# Entry
Amino acid sequence: MRLLKVLLGTAAAGTIVLAFRDFANERWLQPALPAGAGWDDDEELLAEDEEEEPVLGYDGMDRDTLVAWLDDAGLDEETLLDIRRYEEAQQARGPVLDKVDDLLASFG
# Structure
């Protein structure tokens, strides 16, 4: 059984090398990127396309749950600013933005 696992692992690694290696030019193939984007722009692409949620579980909360959670969470000013930026960029839900603004106002 162990020999079978080793053989299957070696076959999988070989398949990956064959699929992603350009042997004629002796280099690895690069994935297709959006028009105008290059390898140097990969951090910028992440920031534009897949901005991370400001707190774990944020994207899983609906509007009402999020507003209630914001009341009870006791977040610091920096986290609230991150939430505001993220919410504006993603869904721009008025009640959520209003709650964040109210909480930010308490910091003076």
